[in-house]
Amino acid sequence: MNVTKQINLIKRVDQLTISLKQALIRNIFFMLPSLLTIPFYYLAFNNIEIVKINDLKGFATFIASSYPSQSIFSNGASIIIFIDLIFLIVDTSKKGKSLHDKLGKTYVIKYTLTN
Fold first, then answer.
1. Number of domains in the chain
2. Looking at residue 50, what DSSP letter applies?
3. How far apart are CA 25 and CA 104, in angstroms?
């Protein structure tokens, strides 16, 4: 089978859709950390000291020293994603459900469309 002819799609099962509440619960792990860091980056980019920085390491050091709470949020997000991955790896139902799928009462089905 030619790999270029395969298209992976998300397919609704039995024409069921998830509710807004389920979608928010399922995706809160990924949305919340990003939303919480917006104020820190807003403050950082409005700080006059940022014009002196010319590399990524300097920027990371500047953010970490100027806004230590941002590091807490970023590290917390990494831990949550790691825990989500562990749930996926040790899933005993073999349905490939990670933590965010279990909390949102959803699951993903791989559907391959071939010609």
1. 1
2. G
3. 5
